[in-house]
Each structure stands twice: as C-alpha cells, then as structure tokens.
Automatic annotation (TrEMBL):
<dbReference type="InterPro" id="IPR036736">
    <property type="entry name" value="ACP-like_sf"/>
</dbReference>
<dbReference type="InterPro" id="IPR009081">
    <property type="entry name" value="PP-bd_ACP"/>
</dbReference>
<protein>
    <submittedName>
        <fullName>AMP-binding protein</fullName>
    </submittedName>
</protein>
<keyword id="KW-0436">Ligase</keyword>
<dbReference type="GO" id="GO:0071766">
    <property type="term" value="P:Actinobacterium-type cell wall biogenesis"/>
</dbReference>
<dbReference type="GO" id="GO:0016746">
    <property type="term" value="F:acyltransferase activity"/>
</dbReference>
<keyword id="KW-0276">Fatty acid metabolism</keyword>
<dbReference type="Pfam" id="PF00501">
    <property type="entry name" value="AMP-binding"/>
</dbReference>
<keyword id="KW-0443">Lipid metabolism</keyword>
<feature type="domain" description="Carrier">
    <location>
        <begin position="612"/>
        <end position="686"/>
    </location>
</feature>
<dbReference type="InterPro" id="IPR020806">
    <property type="entry name" value="PKS_PP-bd"/>
</dbReference>
<dbReference type="GO" id="GO:0006633">
    <property type="term" value="P:fatty acid biosynthetic process"/>
</dbReference>
<dbReference type="InterPro" id="IPR002123">
    <property type="entry name" value="Plipid/glycerol_acylTrfase"/>
</dbReference>
<dbReference type="Pfam" id="PF23024">
    <property type="entry name" value="AMP-dom_DIP2-like"/>
</dbReference>
<dbReference type="GO" id="GO:0031177">
    <property type="term" value="F:phosphopantetheine binding"/>
</dbReference>
<dbReference type="GO" id="GO:0016874">
    <property type="term" value="F:ligase activity"/>
</dbReference>
<comment type="similarity">
    <text>Belongs to the ATP-dependent AMP-binding enzyme family.</text>
</comment>
Amino acid sequence: MTAAGYVFGTQQKIATLVDLLRYRSIAQPDDTAFVFLKDGETIAASWTYQQLDHQARIIATHLQALTRPGDRVLLLYPSGLEFIAAFFGCLYAQTIAVPAYPPKANQTLNRLQAIVADADAAAAMTTEALLPDLQRKWREEALPPIHWLASDGLDSHNCNWQEPPITSATLAFLQYTSGSTGNPKGVMVSHGNLLHNERLIKQAFGHHDQTISVGWLPLFHDMGLVGNVLQPLYLGLPCTLMSPVAFLQKPLRWLQAISDYRATSSGGPNFAYELCVRKISPEQRRQLDLSRWDVAFTGAEPIRAETLDRFAAAFAECGFRREAFYPCYGLAESTLFVTGGTKTAAPTILTVEPDSLSQNRVVLTDAGLPLVGCGHPRFDQNVIVVDPNTLTECHQGEVGEIWVSGPSVAQGYWNRPDATAATFQAQLAPAANNPDYFLRTGDLGFIQGTELFVTGRLKDVIIIRGRNHYPQDIELTVEQSHASLRSPNGAAAFTVEVEGDEQLVVVAEVERTALRKTAADELEVIFSQIRAAIAKQHDLQVHAIVLLKPGYLPKTSSGKIQRHACRTGFQTGTLASVAQWQVAQTDSNPVVVLPTYDRETLLAQPASQQQQTIQTWLQVQIAARLKVGLEQIDLERPLTDYGLDSVEAVSLVADLEDWLGQSLDSDLLNDHLTLAQLSQVLTTQLYQPSPNLTPCPLPRRRSRLFWSWSQAVYQHWFQLSCQGLEHLPTDRPYLLAANHVSHLDAGAIVVSLLKQVDQVICLGAKDYFFDHALKSWFSRSFLNLVPLDREGTLLGALDALRHCEQLLNARTPILIFPEGTRSRTGEIQAFQPGLGLLALKLNVPIVPVYIEGTYQALPKGRLLPRRHPIQVTFGAPLDLASPQRNAADREACQAITDQTRAAILQLRANRLEQTFAPIPTQTNGRAIK
C-alpha cells in the first residue's frame, strides 16, 4: 500500500480507495458494509467488507483481460450493491469508472451517446437483466463497438487479480455533470481528491465510531457515490441504501428507515424534505423515532428556510431537532463537499432586501428574502467570492462568483484543456501578485463573517430537485416540439420561485405565418406538446408557458437571449404575449372528494361503472398534480401529453397501488395509453389473471367489449379493409405469417378475422411485451400474446413451441411476424427461421398475410397514430412442411421462411391491382374470447 494519510479507524497510511477497501476487508472482514432495501422496506442484499472486496477482485480480473490501465468503463446500473462492486472493480483494475444511469424504456440514448463519445469508453458494465436491452439499443443507435460485461453473472472462482500500481494521483472516475446533453463534461476525480473530501465530510459532519447512515440518493451522482457509499466506507461503518424511486414513491420509507435502523446521518436536496412534509400523514409520523438523527444534511439545490421550518415543526413530535439540519454547499468539480456549518448549531439564516441582492449588494432587513447559510470551509480548503468582471476579491456583503481552491478540487475536465484552463485555473487579478489557481464554480454568493451564502447561478443554469439543467437544452426541446414555434433562438427557459420551490417557465415565439392561422384549439395543442416534450427529454414539469409575437423575445444586440429580462417580464406581466398557459393556484380548483373504494367494492360494481370510477380517479389525481381544472383532463389524450415529471409519475403509481391493492410498474405511465385505455387496463387487472404462460380468457363480455372497441377504431379511424378470407382453412389449424411495420399490425389482422374465428393467438417479443408484470398480463389476456424469444435462433423458438402445440391442438390459429421486429423503412425485411421450425414441428400450413397502410399510420418511433387506410390481404395456405424435412435443420427452416416471404411479396405485387371490400361489421353471435 502506498503511504499517504491516515484514514479514520485505521492505524496505517492509505493513499487510494483500493488501499482503503483492502484494509477494511482484512481488519473488518465480517462487518456489514452495505445493506440494500428492496422497495425501500425489506432487505434485498447485505454485503460485508470481505464480500465487497471479493466481488471487486472478480470484476477486476475480467476487466484486466478486456482493457488497459486508464481505459474508461461505463457503469449502467440501477440502484443496488452491484453498482458499488462494479465501481470498485474498475478501481481495482486501474480503469476509470464512468457512472451513468441506464435509459428508461421510452428514452433515447442521446445523453449516453454523448458521454460515450466524450469519454471514449472501452467497455460497459451492467447487470444480466439489463444487458440484452442495452445491447439492442446500442445496435439500434449505431453506437461504436464496446466490450460488454454483466458483472453479476461472473464466475466467482475466476479471481486472478493482479494489483496494479495505483497512487493518490491516479484517476478514479469521471463525474459527468448533469448539464448539456450535447456537450457533457467529465470531471476528472482522483483517489487523492476522494480521500481528502471524505476527510472533510467526516470532520464537518462530526461523524464518529457510532455513526449510522441511511441513503436514497442516486449512486451514479456525486452526492450518492461520495456521500452515501464512500463516506461510510471511509468510516468503516454500515450504510443502509434504497433506490431514489422507492423514496419518491413513498417518502415515508426514507424516514422509516432512519427510524428503524436508528440512523444518525442522512440527507438530500431541499425537495426531499418538502416531500416528506407533504406526503407523510400525522398518523404515520407518530410511528417514527428520529431522535438519533443528528446530521440532516441538505444541499445540491437552493435551500429554503420555509422548508426547514415546516419540516422541523412537522417532525418535532418524532424527536427531530432543528439543530440537526446541516446545510452545506458543494459541486462535482470539487469532488463533492466544499462548505458546511457547525454540528449541533441551528442553520444560520439572514433576511436581505431582494432589490439590493439583485444589484449584488447585501442589505440586511427585518422583512425580506430569507437566505440559508451553507457554513464555512475546512482544513486547507479556501473559498473566496470574486467579482466575475474584474476578477478581484469581493468585500464582505458583496455578491460575486464563488471560487474554491484546495486538494479536493478535481483535476479538470476530461480531454478538454481549454475548458479546464478556464474553469480550474482561474487567477485573481493581477495574476503576478496572485499566482494561486482557483476553481470557478459558476455559482453566485457572498460571505458574511465566515458563513457562505449561495444566491444563484452565474450562467443561468437551472437547478430543480438537485439536478442541473442547461437552459439552451430545454429551449431546443421547446423549439422542436411544434412546427409553429420559431427556431433557432426562439425560446427562453428559466425558473421562478413558487411556494418555496423552483418552477420551470418557458417563453417561445410563434412563427408569423403560423400566428395568422392558429386557432384557440391549436394553441392548446402547442402547450400540450411543449409540456410533453420537456417531460420526456428532461424529466421536468412546466409551471407556465408564454407564447410571444415574433421578434419580441428579449435579446441582446448580438442576438443572445436575455433570460433575466424574460423572467422579469413574466413576473411583471410585460411580455408581448399572444397566449399563456399556467398551472392554477391550488385554491382555485377545489379538490373533488371521491368515495373511498377498496378492491372488493370495485369488483362488485358493474364493468362500465368500474372503468368510469377509475377514469374519474385518474382525472382528479392528474388535475391535482398539475393544478388544473378537471375540464382540462381529456380522456382521449395519452398520459404523456400532460407532462408529469418522474416525481409526480411515481407518486401517481404509488397512490394507485394503495387504492387498487395491486403492485404496478411506474413505466405503465410511459406506455402512451390514453386515460381511457389506461382505465380499461386497470379495470381488467382487477380480475387477478392466472400466472399460466398461456393466455387466460376473461369474462366473455369484457373481451367482446375490448375487441368490439378495437374493431370500431380500425374501421372508422383507419378504414380497415381486407380480402382473401376465403383462403383460411376451416378443417385444420394453421399459422398466419405477416410482414411487420407497426404496432397496429396485430390488431388489424385480429379484427379482420373476427367473423371467421373465435380467437387468434399472437407470438410477441418476450423482451418487449413481457418485460414487466402488468404489461405481460395485458399482452396475454387481451392481445392474446405468447412470449417468443426474437433472437432468431432455433432454440429460442423452441421456448414457445409447447404453447403453440397446445393451442393448435385446440384449433386456434397462431399469428407470427417472422421479421422479428418492426421494419424502420416499411420494406419487408429478411425472415427468421423460427417460422419454419414451427411449421415443421407442428406440421401445419402457413397462411401468408400482407399488411399495408400501418407504416403510414404508426411507423416505428412515432408515438401517436395518424389517420391512414389499412388493408390486410390473406393468401392461399402454403403446405411447406413434409416428413422428409428435419426440424433441426436450419437450412430447411430458413427455406420455409424464404418461401413464405416470397408469397407475401407476391401478395404485395398483386395488391396493386386489387379492389378491397369492407370487412364484416357483425360477428354473427360468435364468442370473442
């Protein structure tokens, strides 16, 4: 081990995090290091220091075989102990960890792609569960080749780790700041930076040998990694972790864990404390014991005095003391921690004149703007406030840019020498008399006595719920959300304070030609699309939108947007507005009180009443979260149109779970269902479907209603027509094979067959339609899907074979899309051999089906369908199977699929001269299963 400095609880000098974990694994092998709570409540995993060290060495062994020292390794993990092991595996292999978060199912890889390009990552690690989906998205986005490693599936006996020559100057990881999507900057953090910052945190927080930590912050973020993972390791004391989603769904889980585990140190951004005040009831508070919690740190976003007051008052009966609050200031460029207060002392709060503050002067007053102090620096850290224009140090009571120097300041930005020089190598003027380098934080503040007060951002970076958002990224999203909006430089994004929270406001110019044509209902569409785009791309909820006349967006003479002037104009009502949307004040929309229904009461209601009850509940809940009237919640619009951010989305799911008594997946809100469709899904879920792999018939009336509704949609919206129904065999089962370009394909075929057959079973991609419980059940029960591995291998197709055989024995037709995935171009792609395998093994004919029009209505990548006629053509059955063909022969299987593809291509050619007849509108009393 390399000699450097003493670490808390050790008797020897330690220079790196590798030294630290190796020491803990030897000195405290069986002591608990980390505990992870599944759903924030029950223990899912618990590791000792020895187990963590062993996992890190296994991972490092594999990394050393794939990479070279100094290579960058992308970490794509959900919250859990696997991330911690992967992080230390990188350190043990002398690679540079690049923590990130795997994208959600409906998100693009834009930001991740930019990080990969900037870091020039050589490898990526994740879990076995996430690996297939990430690799698929990687291929679809045409990202550069990279080594993939699922760290939780490695051979535990393959541990041939060679300890590399690591020093305190060695880079440990790159922290990509939560800023611009197109131009992310990776902060280079060394082992020495981390150990120094951990020492600062330990001393400032007053941590000791009885400290117990609880954390929910994202582990890929510096506050979660440095504060919730590395600080407990530095102390040699346990930490209990949960995921951010678990906390957001039910804030009580955080405080309950603090109570149950008798934690002394825990914290988060200001919004976390505000959520606890709003979401935890008086009855729930009475079950909490917060008396041992003596460090309630808060930072990462503006700290509100009102929030501290409300939280302290609400939880005083739980034993929480106001003196436990520990406001602090930090940033990734200084590893994490910069300043903090004095433990056991109440936060310092000054009341200043807002007008003077806007002029960079501090004038104390009895009634004004309360500002919470962020403490003072420790040890050899130096914090000064500098006039950003003259580069001279400000006097007491003057607002300027916060500059920092000391061993915790990171090494710069990865592969960006100019940005590093500008940000990390600032000097006071004149430089000849002030040779020391400082970090320019970009934050504005002042020092009163020894206390630092942070007042804002120098460059208008928006901070909401602890995350930085660059205005230019949000503005670009706004400009691209609707064709009627001007671009470029036609929008401004900024925040205003509303009830103690920072809220997003956007101002956008409307094109002159569009302005003359835009009606009132089209304005609502513009507002809706802006909200939806911002929610999807930035996970933010919009407080207000102002549409301006062209040329009226405040700008400088050089064309730069004046966001401060936009904010002032919004607050004073002086913008040249042509239309404005804003969430209503809480008291302007009285809350509709619904009857309290439990699950049994809902089940006892008629089906139509059940769905209506759920629809009304959803309308009220969404309106309450958006602070709008019920009349603004349209049942025929997708939930994504309403722009719920992740906090509100998971909160809505949590409330649904409590009400329905069912476990739901938060991604349900991202499936682009309208409120009416979602209500229908939730209504059917009440019936607790069987867990069998084959579809479970629902009550006939419900299934009939569903497919009758689908039939009406296809007939009237898409003008569905078909031909060739006479080709369908009536004396034997068969397979239907169709081209695939859209999510509308399966429904078009099933609706076309309603008169001919009672039921059609579809083979659906296992990794798409069955990736969570509710979606899986809905796919089986209503869409009649059976899971199929779409990798295209013979063995993969065998997974569905037994289900298909059972269904065909019952004379149920089976629909398969041999291309394996939707075509991006609308052209018919190559077929996979799984179709041939099914035909051979089951000895059934194949009916070729050609679909057209669905690509124009809903191509891959489009969220909402457009009106366009859809046609379905059924061809004559193909008897391609024969006893002479071997089902294990891939060539035979491929030959069958090729012949089927040729038949579908011929149907397409024939379609050019065909005339369609409307599909039947009656089912002649046949049951729709």
